[in-house]
Design brief:
Largest interface: A-B, 51 and 45 residues
Oligomer: heterodimer
Strand content of chain A: 15-25%
Helix content of chain B: 25-40%
Radius of gyration of chain A: 22 Å
Order of helices and strands of chain A: EHEEEEEEHHEEEHEHHHHEEEEHHH
Largest sheet of chain A: 9 strands, mixed
Largest sheet of chain B: 6 strands, mixed
Number of helices of chain A: 11
Shape of chain A: globular
Order of helices and strands of chain B: HEEEHEHEHEEEHHEHHHHHHH
Bound molecules: iron/sulfur cluster
Chain lengths: ~350, ~325
């Protein structure tokens, strides 16, 4: 194991940035979100939960696809994308265990056939440096999904305490990054890491949502869960906004839209939310016409549909962002508590 | 606060039991002490989850657009700021007034859990007002904070009074605050154009276009928003370019101008803490200046400055140039 003094982290960022892009939690206008590092940026590794998850490194909020210009009867199609094969290598730094697991959830969608080549190019160009948690919060419930917040995977795993960032490479990519910054690293840290892990585990054990019961979320209960009368009440205060989906590290739905600009029509892909009234709008109309149905879709997808198609892997990682951010305090925990452990009667 | 909750609960029971109302709209308990949700209670049994505490910041008025169309009467608990939204929605014929029984309910400001957490305090198990301070209990012991650091932004400058009530449950009087709600707007006005642009640029670039601000806004009651309507040509789900990022917010601010009651819900719900209320307050301040003092939601009747013409009206062009009055 290696370590670097906290005071020298800026040198580390600068060194990485010389040859690669560096994407990490940065405070801007009061909020911490993943952004590209630059001299003078306020990095905040201590922030447990960035508002947006790091998923937009691979799956950006919006991505321009092409432009159309019409002149008389001619349509000019302008390719506004850069060639995905030219994706510059970058480092995604400070990813928490839950958000790291969420990338696996996204991979199963975007890297399955047909592969999303843009997502894939970004994934391949990235070295992921994870950061273990030492101060989990009451809304965290990663443990429920079998995630160990004190030992996330990734190409490199790091731990942070008052004085040092501890560093352990796990993969070839991780070794390469370690070699790049070798001059800044020193040996040691095993003991400090072990002590921190033990203390964190004790907190994780006691978190209020650590023992949520997921036993009822099985494909064979799909119909019962779908038809449960509790959905009405659970969703009644829902605003149909996109907050819970847009802060969620595993939400993966997108839309392709056209936007009329002064220079023609811009076609872009953007995040979509199943909470929106025009989600899956088709020529015949919309298959979900009430907010209850949309709300149900979000949670059924996370807890039943996705796992039934992905070897039982839930598409919630317990990051607790929707718990913290829903304006009306509706969230997946309330859904799990209401439906998760109930008998089938 | 407990006594207020008890009284509200008693009253809700009476109203439901006697059949005077078919449902009561209030708040129900969450997972923690600080995350209640708006809720409808249709029976005395359902009231077991009823709560009213320092964290019931949500404005219930907008829910009444749908609920007031239901069969039977509905009782609703409204805080002072909520009564303005209620009146405004009645004025716009969105709420059926005759179907609603308004219970004005005590409010001395609501707390913002995110502000408490930002102080590094977690595992909050309760919060109580103690003079000008707030005692926050946590799993690790008690913390004392200044009330002014803990209240929701919308509550920090609120001196509103109930504008409508059929009855009231008020046990403690509110103290008027010596604050100017336009102070922050004046600061923005004092900036140079470039500084102001940079300020909004920095703030709005955080926007994730989740529409929470719009969806919670009582003035945003259009059945189909232009931004959701593919036929509008400006519909958009995301800030696909830098221009759009501003367009959404500015169009929205214009559209609610003269109808925004300054309930502050937009800033409360924004996951990125963008101070959206400042845009709306700028409009309120300008309307006051150009057309005479006006507070949307004060009454459910009467004319509004932007939808009625008088001979002495400021010329739009002068408004644009900022030269009026
Ligand atoms: S559950 Fe909450 S965050 Fe999600 S759409 Fe409904 S109101 Fe918005
Ligand atoms: S559903 Fe909520 S808790 Fe689960 S991963 Fe998404 S935001 Fe996190
Ligand atoms: S949910 Fe788990 S991994 Fe995610 S921030 Fe909380 S403790 Fe860390
Ligand atoms: S609530 Fe905030 S993040 Fe969401 S659309 Fe409004 S300004 Fe943007």
């Amino acid at each position: 194991m290696k370590k670097i003094a906290k005071a020298k982290l800026n040198e580390l960022y600068a060194k990485i940035s010389e040859s690669m892009g560096l994407f990490l939690p940065i405070k801007r206008a009061g909020e911490v979100n993943y952004a590209v590092w630059g001299e003078g940026k306020e990095v905040s590794l201590e922030t447990l939960k960035t508002v947006k998850s790091p998923k937009n490194a691979f799956f950006p909020d919006s991505e321009n696809l092409m432009k159309f210009k019409t002149e008389g009867k001619n349509i000019e199609i302008i390719d506004v994308r850069k060639d995905y094969k030219e994706e510059k290598p970058f480092v995604l730094f400070g990813v928490k265990a839950c958000d790291y697991k969420a990338i696996e959830v996204l991979d199963r969608v975007f890297l399955a056939d047909p592969v999303d080549s843009y997502y894939q190019a970004r994934r391949e160009a990235t070295t992921i440096v994870t950061l273990a948690c030492s101060k989990p919060e009451e809304s965290c419930f990663c443990k429920v999904f079998g995630i160990d917040a004190t030992a996330p995977c990734g190409d490199v795993t790091t731990w942070l305490d008052e004085n040092y960032l501890y560093w352990q490479a796990n993969t070839e990519k991780g070794e390469a990054l370690t070699a790049l910054v070798a001059d800044l690293l020193e040996e040691g840290g095993e003991e400090s890491v072990a002590t921190q892990q033990e203390a964190t585990k004790a907190i994780l054990e006691k978190l209020p949502f650590s023992a949520l019961d997921l036993s009822r979320f099985k494909p064979e209960n799909l119909n019962d869960l779908f038809n449960d009368p509790a959905w009405e009440e659970m969703s009644e205060a829902c605003l149909g906004c996109g907050t819970c989906t847009f802060v969620c590290p595993t939400c993966q739905c997108f839309d392709i839209r056209d936007f009329k600009t002064s220079e023609g029509v811009l076609r872009y892909r953007c995040w979509d939310s199943c909470m929106y009234s025009d989600f899956t709008l088709m020529a015949h109309g919309n298959s979900r016409t009430t907010q209850m149905q949309r709300f149900r879709q979000r949670f059924m997808h996370k807890l039943v549909y996705y796992p039934s198609q992905n070897d039982g892997l839930y598409s919630c990682v317990g990051c607790g962002r929707c718990v913290n951010k829903c304006p009306q305090h509706l969230n997946i925990v309330k859904v799990i508590k209401t439906l998760g452990g109930k008998n089938d009667d | 606060m407990k006594e207020v909750e008890t009284k509200m609960l008693e009253r809700a029971k009476e109203l439901l039991e006697s059949g005077e109302v078919a449902r009561v709209v209030g708040w129900k308990k969450g997972e923690f002490c600080y995350d209640p949700s708006p809720a409808t209670f249709e029976s005395v049994e359902e009231l077991k989850d009823f709560t009213y505490d320092w964290f019931c910041g949500a404005n219930l008025s907008k829910y009444l657009i749908q609920i007031s169309k239901k069969e039977g009467k509905t009782a609703v608990f409204l805080k002072p700021c909520d009564t303005y939204s209620f009146n405004q929605l009645v004025k716009e014929h969105r709420i059926k007034r005759e179907n609603i029984h308004v219970i004005a309910v005590e409010c001395r400001g609501k707390f913002d859990i995110e502000k408490i957490k930002a102080k590094g305090i977690s595992f909050v198990t309760g919060a109580q007002l103690d003079g000008t301070q707030v005692k926050v209990s946590t799993l690790y012991g008690e913390e004392t904070l200044e009330k002014s650091d803990v209240v929701l932004t919308k509550c920090a400058t609120c001196n509103k009074d109930y504008q409508v009530q059929d009855e009231a449950i008020i046990l403690h009087e509110r103290t008027k605050k010596d604050v100017d709600r336009f102070a922050e707007v004046a600061k923005l006005e004092a900036m140079t154009e470039e500084e102001r642009f940079a300020f909004w640029r920095e703030q709005l670039s955080k926007c994730i276009r989740c529409n929470a601000c719009r969806n919670v806004c009582p003035a945003c009651s259009c059945v189909k928003c232009v931004f959701d309507n593919p036929a509008s040509e400006i519909s958009a789900k995301v800030n696909s370019d830098k221009f759009e990022e501003q367009l959404f917010h500015i169009i929205r601010a214009f559209h609610v101008a003269g109808r925004c009651t300054d309930c502050g819900e937009c800033s409360r719900v924004c996951p990125q803490h963008i101070p959206l209320h400042l845009l709306n307050r700028k409009f309120i301040k300008d309307i006051d200046n150009f057309y005479g003092e006006y507070q949307a939601g004060e009454t459910a009747e009467g004319k509004t400055p932007l939808t009625s013409y008088t001979e002495g009206d400021t010329e739009p062009n002068d408004v644009f140039k900022g030269e009026a009055k």
